[in-house]
Specification:
Layout lengths: L4 H24 L4 E3 L2 E3 L3 H4 L16 E4 L5 E5 L3 E2 L9 H11 L11 H14 L9 H12 L4 H8 L3 H17 L2 H11 L6 E2 L1 H9 L8 H10 L12 H17 L5 H8 L22 H13 L5 H6 L3 E4 L3 H14 L7 E7 L6 E6 L2 E2 L6 E2 L16 H10 L7 E3 L4 E7 L8 E4 L8 E3 H7 L2 H11 L3 H10 L5 H10 L13 H12 L4 E2 L4 E5 L20 E2 L5 H16 L16 E6 L5 E7 L4 E7 L14 H14 L12 H5 L7 H4 L45
Parallel strand pairs: 3-7, 5-6, 10-11
Antiparallel strand pairs: 1-2, 3-4, 7-17, 8-9, 8-21, 12-15, 13-14, 16-18, 19-20, 20-21
Length: about 725
């Protein structure tokens, strides 16, 4: 068989099949009148299928976009790169070129053009190749819409299977579309849905991809090339196959010339020139391409799917506008601050996380990592929100809050030895076995009140304060009430095990939850759940709703007086001293002219170091740790974490007026309460140094170049059931 005969036989077979299909369509439509312009329904209500929702309000939407709080773009989210445009945003010559090459009788038929189909078949047979399509643009719109909105393999197969039933349904739906929408609306919808190759769906994406212009600015040669791409995007790609693209473009120009829409001079001049492209870049897609805040972006998407219940397909294909809480200025300052202390991709990760007191809005998430890529300096885990290491003495605040709520005051004085042996807690938890003993590293006064013990971070005082409370339950429940959600899975075990080590913070802690818990104090006792998204708009710019009609995104979820306001305001006044007092452990975080409250913490073996600082407007935590293996981070909470906090917050605070904390409760700040009884404040003389931990919440000696305040600190020893160090 000759090279020519083989394709000719296939074309003849197609011709025969199309004649059969055309006859079936005419018979299947039953009652339409056959006229010179095609098929006209006498009664569309009885003749035509009801339009499925896919062809009305669920046609493919554009790229979803994620916006920062100021409206700037973070990234797009999409399966197919598409930016729908209105009819007046498409160059008229583009519309003409497409109609001329794909469906020159578009403005004459009613959706089904048997005459045009037969003419195309004859032309294709004569040419020995496909020169002209048989389906109308309206039929192609039906097919592409059903295909691109299909959600199951069965739906996709139904949209593409080669049988008379599909053709008949397409014809009916095409005619229904013609009854429902104007010609310009149909043409615009088609130009917004059709695939042009190179990942570009729709004319705007194609114009940007191939020519770096908007669809409204396309010229005749550009329009002719794009119109030609519809038939075979890969084969006629002007970037990878410029010769093929030129041939196909000239076919379009010839057709436009034959129909009188291009002059002889235009045809001659343009067809002699090679295809000229100016490729544009694809829009960012996903959090890996985020312009800022990649980890925040991932956390926001996690919130959309895990908390708000959207599917990834709804997000990627819904053309949504996702308004987030990210503040670009705070994110940029945090990014730089972390890198000032820890290089990008270093073994140690520094996580800086900011929330807004009183709303729970997450304002920034910085890490010395890039999100989602495959390089060694990249990370796909959202380190700001996961709990991996303890947060050390930052937990002493929860014990202090529980004590204040019970009526203890900031002046509550306890005398302890060093080491101090608990009268309540056992080394291995429970009620039996060796007692639990802790020691301080450094020189501490034997007698301290709550104010000085919290500022200087005394281990022995806070274990004795837990003794005075009689149980660890109140501190644990206080931490939960303040928003330390990463504690929820362990809370009952800590209480049931009677683990006095709670005050030393051995529990795996989420940096986000730690900032959130401290924000409850900044908001005078109002606890707000962290939230990264304030609104989700649908493709039409309307708020997305649930099935019951209520907004998908609720307002802030806050609990007023989650802790007593007087407890919160009193702690704020005490914790200012951790940053401003010479004896404080967090003095490196100080920003002149601003009141900052805070607390340092270091986990056992210095596997992590933390600092949480806050003002009435912002609460931010910093944790430094190795996310892959346990290792000594080489410093304490008052060093790298406090330094990062300062560097991140100083540019923000210095550009706005200082906001002071409200006064504390006089009765709790200055009121008197009898000191702990003698048996609660004396040490067990039989305890040896070997029973005490020597890890310290203090600043390393001057030789390490990291000295802070008076060098005071604390030692930590855990009692988590097996007697492990924490």
């Amino acid at each position: 068989m000759s090279e020519y005969a083989q394709p000719l036989s296939r074309i003849l077979a197609k011709l025969a099949a199309t004649i059969v299909v055309a006859g079936a369509l005419v018979a299947g439509l039953l009652f339409p009148l056959v006229g010179g312009t095609g098929l006209a329904a006498r009664s569309s209500a009885s003749l035509l299928d009801a339009l499925p929702v896919e062809l009305t309000d669920k046609t493919p939407a554009g790229n979803s976009k994620v916006l920062a709080a100021d409206g700037s773009l973070i990234t797009y989210l999409y399966t197919n790169n598409r930016t729908p445009v209105t009819g007046d945003q498409i160059s008229p010559i583009m519309k003409q070129a497409l109609v001329d090459i794909e469906d020159s009788r578009f403005y004459d038929h009613n959706g089904l053009d048997v005459q045009g189909t037969m003419r195309a078949l004859v032309k294709n047979v004569a040419a020995g190749s496909v020169q002209e399509g048989g389906s109308t643009l309206t039929q192609q719109l039906v097919k592409q819409t059903l295909l691109q909105t299909a959600t199951t393999p069965e739906d996709r197969q139904a949209a593409t299977e080669q049988n008379v039933g599909r053709k008949l349904r397409e014809a009916r739906l095409a005619m229904a579309l013609e009854e429902t929408y104007s010609k310009d609306e149909i043409l615009t919808r088609y130009l917004n849905i059709v695939y042009f190759g190179q990942g570009a769906y729709g004319i705007q994406a194609a114009a940007q991809k191939y020519f770096s212009v908007n669809a409204a600015d396309l010229t005749l040669p550009q329009a002719a090339m794009l119109a030609g791409l519809v038939q075979s995007p890969a084969n006629d790609d002007p970037i990878t196959n410029p010769d093929n693209a030129m041939v196909r473009r000239n076919q379009v120009l010839q057709r436009m010339y034959d129909l009188g829409h291009v002059t002889a001079q235009e045809f001659t001049e343009i067809s002699a020139q090679p295809v000229a492209v100016a490729p544009g870049t694809d829009p960012p897609n996903g959090c890996i391409d985020a312009t800022i805040g990649g980890f925040f972006c991932a956390y926001a998407l996690q919130h959309l799917t895990g908390t708000l219940g959207l599917t990834q397909a709804e997000i990627d294909q819904g053309g949504l506008t996702i308004q987030t809480t990210l503040r670009p200025d705070m994110q940029a300052a945090g990014d730089q601050a972390v890198l000032n202390t820890l290089p990008m991709g270093a073994d140690l990760a520094g996580m800086y996380t900011v929330v807004e007191p009183g709303t729970g809005n997450v304002l920034a998430m910085s890490v010395n990592r890039r999100y989602g890529c495959s390089d060694p300096e990249c990370e796909s885990v959202i380190l700001n929100s996961v709990a991996s290491q303890g947060a050390g003495s930052t937990y002493k605040v929860f014990v202090a809050a529980a004590a204040l709520a019970e009526g203890f005051t900031a002046n509550h004085t306890i005398t302890t030895g060093n080491p101090y042996t608990s009268r309540v807690y056992k080394k291995n938890g429970g009620t039996r076995g060796a007692p639990y003993t802790v020691s301080n590293a450094g020189n501490y006064a034997a007698t301290m009140d709550m104010r000085s013990a919290l500022v200087q971070s005394s281990n022995t005082y806070f274990l004795a304060l837990e003794d005075a409370l009689g149980s660890v339950e109140k501190p644990v429940r206080m931490a939960q009430a303040m928003g330390l959600r990463s504690l929820d899975g362990r809370a009952d075990a800590i209480i049931d095990g009677n683990l006095g080590s709670f005050t030393l913070g051995p529990e795996a802690t989420s940096p986000l939850d730690l900032a959130s818990a401290y924000s409850t104090m900044a908001a005078s006792g109002t606890q707000c759940d962290p939230r990264p998204v304030t609104q989700v708009l649908d493709r039409n710019g309307e708020p997305l709703t649930k099935a019951d009609g209520t907004p998908l995104v609720p307002g802030s979820t806050c609990t007023p007086e989650a802790i007593p306001p007087e407890v919160a305001t009193t702690l704020n006044q005490i914790l200012i001293g951790d940053v401003s007092s010479p004896e404080g452990t967090g003095t490196r975080a100080a920003v002149p002219g601003h009141e900052i409250a805070g607390k340092t913490g270091t986990s056992q073996r210095r596997y992590s170091a933390a600092f949480v600082g806050y003002t009435p407007q912002y609460a931010a935590s910093v944790m430094v740790l190795d996310p892959k293996v346990g290792r000594d981070v080489g410093g304490f909470g008052g060093n790298k974490p406090a330094t990062i906090w300062h560097d991140a917050m100083a540019p923000i605070l210095t550009n706005q007026p200082a906001v002071p904390f409200p006064p504390g409760d006089p009765a709790l700040l200055d009121g008197g309460r009898p000191s702990a009884p003698e048996e609660d404040r004396s040490s067990d003389s039989s305890t040896t140094e070997e029973e005490s931990s020597t890890e310290a919440e203090q600043v390393p000696p001057p030789a390490d170049g990291e000295q802070n305040g008076n060098g005071r600190g604390n030692g930590q020893q855990g009692n988590r059931g097996r007697g492990d160090d924490d």
